[in-house]
Write a structure and sequence with these properties.
The protein is mostly helical and 434 residues long. It folds into two domains: 183 residues, Growth Hormone, Chain: A (Up-down Bundle), CATH 1.20.1250.20; 168 residues, Up-down Bundle (Growth Hormone, Chain: A), CATH 1.20.1250. It has 20 helices and no strands. Helix 3 crosses helix 4 and helix 4 packs antiparallel against helix 7. The protein is globular, with a radius of gyration of 23 Å. Pfam families: Sugar_tr (PF00083). Keywords: Membrane, Transmembrane, Transmembrane helix. GO terms for molecular function: transmembrane transporter activity. This is Major facilitator superfamily (MFS) profile domain-containing protein. It is found in: Membrane.
Length: 434
């Protein structure tokens, strides 16, 4: 089957989006489990201690995913993507066959490891294989599709058995695995490995042979050839050079800030424990508030995907972070003042603040951070792997920038556009490539 370069890019992006749909289901699945198991109408009995394990093990199980960048550098992006999808599928299988809490927790461990690994693999693969005009939208669509998975599981979990929900959400991950087998390998990874002929072939398959693509390929290959020439004699010297270089330290710090904003923003606990939080605040379960939060999460991600076409990702993220902080602070202060008797008992007010928090969170701070973080680390360093002011002042806007331009920003301190008059001396394959 002959595919155009654009179709191959959509194949890569589409498979990551299918995996994101299943990964979104993974995030909301503990909420469904906790709600249905607490009803005591299943063979599995749940207490507070076991319930806390179901809700928290997802994050702890993701700690080994820190090794995924090394796997990506050693085996390539395609292998790492398929491996991450398989981990998620194994998690869904365990939850489907579960007859006790232990099996459910094992399934959630695979879910945590798979989804946390998938984020790094998907974002890096998309940032390396898609042209800049498609890349930012595709990265944000990953978050949008993931939000669709979160919202869908939150809604259908009220009407379907938790095993049925797991079976449904396993299907996208299985399809993503099959599509992943059709991927070309990342040109950036092939160039990093010194396999320049294969890099050229993969780049042509993905990006075509237009003038801009030729310039970007030349910049990519020349950059990696220079790296190979100046590579240190020993691995220890190479590691020392890496961790002390400007183009590693600054992106690493900015990535640390962005990832911390995403993880410590409060979105994950609110999604998982939203039912319990609403009951604690209002004294009764508010189905309308829960449904509104599920819908707003998906709608907000879609709005964010549109906004970044007209505003920079950085400003959109700042707006989202500020709004979510205000509403979460409002929920906290309101609840406290009601308990000490300063305010009259109006439990709906705190619930409204919680809904507002989800609305602003979905507009950027839970999705844009990953997309920027996946772009700013130079390819050669990807295996080594108060925030408002830092983000506004220092983190560059990556919209429609090539990976080489972003790398130059951290090396030189400013963006260096590709020379429009630069002659392209990288030969392109003459024969037709299927």
């Amino acid at each position: 089957m002959v595919l155009s370069p654009v179709a191959r890019q959509f194949l890569v992006a589409g498979s990551t989006h299918l995996a994101a749909l299943s990964a979104g289901g993974v995030i909301a699945y503990p909420s469904v489990l906790l709600e249905q198991l607490k009803a005591n109408d299943t063979i599995i009995q749940l207490d507070l201690h076991k319930g806390s394990w179901i809700g928290s093990v997802h994050g702890m199980a993701g700690i080994p995913s820190m090794l995924m960048p090394f796997i990506m550098q050693y085996r390539g992006r395609r292998f790492a993507f398929i491996f991450s999808c398989v981990l998620i599928i194994v998690g869904w299988i365990f939850t489907y066959i579960a007859q006790n809490i232990s099996t459910l927790i094992i399934g959630e461990c695979f879910h945590g490891l798979g989804t946390n690994s998938l984020i790094a693999v998907s974002f890096l693969s998309v940032s390396e294989m898609l042209q800049p005009s498609y890349r930012n939208t595709s990265l944000l669509l990953y978050g949008t599709i993931q939000a669709l998975g979160i919202s869908s599981v939150g809604i259908i979990g009220r009407y379907l058995h938790w095993k049925t929900v797991g079976l449904i959400m396993c299907s996208p991950a299985l399809m993503a695995t099959l599509l992943g087998c059709l991927w070309p390998e990342s040109p950036s990874w092939l160039a990093y490995k010194g396999r320049f002929k294969e890099c050229e072939q993969s780049f042509v398959r993905l990006r075509g042979t237009d003038e801009e693509s030729k310039k970007e390929l030349k910049a990519l290959i020349n950059s990696q050839k220079e790296e190979l020439k100046i590579k240190s004699v020993t691995k220890l010297q190479d590691l020392k050079h890496t961790i002390t270089s400007r183009d590693f330290c600054l992106p690493a710090f900015h990535t640390f800030v962005l990832i911390n904003v995403t993880y410590w923003g409060g979105g994950m606990p609110v999604i998982i424990y939203s039912n319990d939080m609403i009951m604690k605040i209002s004294g009764a379960f508010n189905a309308k508030a829960k449904l509104t939060m599920d819908i707003l999460l998906f709608v907000g991600y879609n709005i964010a995907s549109v906004i970044v076409h007209y505003c920079s990702s950085k400003k959109t993220m700042l707006f989202s972070m500020t709004g979510s902080a205000v509403f979460m602070g409002g929920a906290t202060v309101t609840t406290y003042l009601e308990r000490v008797g300063v305010l009259s008992k109006e439990p709906e007010l705190a619930v409204y603040c919680l809904v507002g928090f989800i609305a602003f969170l979905s507009l950027g701070s839970s999705c844009i951070g990953f997309s920027i973080a996946s772009e700013i680390m130079p390819v050669k360093h990807r295996g080594v792997g108060g925030c408002l002011y830092i983000l506004y002042t220092y983190v560059p806007d990556t919209r429609n920038r090539t990976l080489k331009e972003i790398e130059d920003f951290y090396t030189l301190g400013h963006f260096k556009a590709l020379d429009k008059n630069d002659a392209v001396d990288v030969p392109f394959i003459k024969s037709e490539i299927d």
